[in-house]
Amino acid sequence: MRTQLKVTRDGDAFVVRLTPRQVSAMYEALSYLADRDYGDTELTLLVGAGREAVDGLVERLIGRRTESCDFRLTIEELHMLHSALTAVPTMFLERGGLFAEEPFHIRLGFYRENFDALASALVCAVAEA
User: Fold this and answer.
1) Tens digits of residue pLDDT in 70-92
2) Running DSSP on this structure, what letter comes out for residue 48?
3) DSSP tag of 35
4) pLDDT at 125
5) What is the dihedral of CA 90, 95, 101, 104, to 10 degrees?
6) Residue 77: which residues within 8 A CB-CB, separation 6 or more?
7) What is d(CA 127, CA 129) in angstroms, rounded to the nearest whole number?
8) In the chain, what are the helix, strand and coil shares in percent, each to the nearest 5?
9) Can you give the pTM of this predicted structure?
10) Could you tell me which residues are beta bridge partners of residue 70?
């Protein structure tokens, strides 16, 4: 998966160009959290926003894409995406704290390294914008 992102500032928001796989990874991470039985308190702790904001961003990301596309995102929405990419892998820890790579890949369709690299690239791209 390509991990470079193009981000430009647009007033108080950011325009982020994402490949179809990047959108898919972000969708899978955020929707995994949204599909769990979490209330506003848990979601706010995990991604910095409650159910309504999380569901709204999931709806914007849903759908199969064949070409790169631009998303206009606030810093709060970028925080939600970054946090989801970094939080979801912790939910696949087994006893003893070992990461369960196969269940993660089966459920999300990505490797943990993809999520880590995308989260890191997001921070770098926003910082450069």
Assistant:
1) 999 999 999 999 999 999 999 99
2) S
3) T
4) 97
5) -50
6) 53, 57
7) 5
8) 60, 15, 25
9) 0.94
10) 17
